[in-house]
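User: Show me a protein chain along with its predicted structure.
Assistant: Here is one chain, sequence first, then structure tokens.
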Amino acid sequence: MNHVLLTASETAELRATLNDSIGPCSQGRLDPRRVGLFQIILYAFSHNLVAALSLCLWGGAYLTAYSFLQQIDPLDVDIVFYLELDQLIELIERPLFRHLHLRMLECDSDPSNEG
């Protein structure tokens, strides 16, 4: 489902709404509707770690993505997880995640903030 959300042309409007809904572009002026939508979709994606990570990266919730990464148990990692992670890395390398590439080049004034 996350692959459809991030790649299908039918979901472009939803992607635009979710883009940085939590993160850097919305600092100080979070739209409660966008945040609520992000939380609902994150709840739906939380059964799959890679799907939740991709949504967090798209929405600018980098600290949330970090907390998900901290929950990985090395004994629970299997080949399916690696394949899904490989697909996520391929998506991140595409121009679709250009905003994330640019965000990684910026300096944070307060790295403890979400986004």
